[in-house]
Amino acid sequence: MDYNLREMDSEIKAIEESAKRLKALGQGIETVERNTEAILAFTFLLKRNISDLLE
Amino acid sequence: MMDEKKYWNPIIETLPREKLQEIELKRFRELLRWAKDQSPFYKRKLRGIEPGDIRTMEDVAKVPVTEKDELRAAQEGKEPYLYGDLLAVPPERLSIFHQTSGTTGKPVYIPDTYESWQWVVEVWCYILYAAGFRAQDRVFLPFAYNVYIAFWQGHYAAEKLGCEVVPGGALDTQGRIQKMKEVKATALMNTPTYGLHMAEVAKEMGIDPRRDLNIRRMISAGEPVPEPTRLRLEELWGAEVYDHIGGTEPGGWGGMCSEKKGMHVIEPHYLFEMVDLETMSKPIPPGTKGVAVITPLCRRCIPLIRFNLKDVMMVMDEPCPCGRTSIRVSQIGGRVDDLRKIRGVFFTPAVVEEVIRGKFPEVLEFETHLTQEEVMPVLTLRVEFDPSIGEGQWKELRGRIREQLKIRSNLTFEIEVVKPGGLPRYTLKSSRFKDLTKK
Predict the structure, then answer these.
(1) Contacts of B268 in chain A (CB under 8 A)
(2) CA B317 to CA B404: how far, in whole Å?
(3) Domains of chain B by start residue, with CATH
(4) pTM recorded for the entire structure
(5) I want to staple B380 with a disulfide (CB 3.0 to 4.6 A). Which of B92, B303, B414, B434 is the partner?
């Protein structure tokens, strides 16, 4: 099966950027800060599992 | 419907080797930079090493190996408390604590941030998936849920795979067997020693694990599983039994696939090297015994660079029929710490386990003692036979055990029979070799 790595990579980066923006918007609100940290931990893994293969 | 997918990550797990190595070298350089910048320990240790100069595996071999004793020294009495000079992130980012068992000295404390812990769990997902764990499984963990990392990774990885996890923590062995029966658990994670013990206790309860339980898959951790022990577990449980390899410091870094021939290193999350036994630095080719050195490439919390695992292993040369392209290793010689030269012969306690588990199902438990009588080292194997073995058979069995050990190790053993229940049973790491020559 063929996978579109470029498209996946671009979605991963979009999620990461979006989580960072949300974190900044919700600064001072624990639930926003902690949950966006969790999202960023998973985008870190997706980058290691998918995005790094493109370089 | 059965899940026919073979890989947790079909792209990474089938990458050409050159590509895997390219990614690993890049990550190694990044880790060096991070460690030099953030960890006081590595700032000192890596003085003079320029990450940008590391372009090949030969360059990697020029970076000094990290020993466990160095980790202890970098923590003891240093701030921030517990982790000292090893910590490479602000302490407020830490979210979980584990420690080594301390069997070879003072424990080493290994924390994780939320991010690094998710990475540790992710790596275990590769291991469990290769061992056939799937979302349909109800996984039982007869594990004490304490400060040791052991099955914590397995617990969270199984959960991430979509399995239904049954934590069998605060139960005794009988209670765990009853619970597995009650919930019809289909998969199990345990140490090989405890797998054998559970089967023994189940038998005493009138439960045959093969017939009366539903365990179809088992993964071992905590100690090596010699092939005869793995096969014995398969026989006792009527289950597919897989080995995995890892530790508190590096996390779980390798596991068996459906071929059950050696263990795949989880590349490119880890950089794996083998160095020769004599110099402990020179890289060695596949098919040669050596000592394993590992670098977890994405765990930034406490970076670990070229960690000496002190495990004697061999890299398997031929490609695996499962299609994974990662390095495969076989754990063949036990721990460097357990290696002894006795009467001019290299001895490793792993040999005893291979002989006993491979050829003597009559032996329930055993223990090897090394003592010194005047100038002569003496090896004594203490064995506990199955209660169904009458005393009339002991002499013949002792003779056969002594003969097989002599063939396999080239050493003569004294054989001592211990009464039923006279030897310890282990739930985590077993300790069946006792060097009593050490003061």
Answers:
(1) 52
(2) 30
(3) 1-336 (3.40.50.12780), 339-435 (3.30.300.30)
(4) 0.87
(5) B414
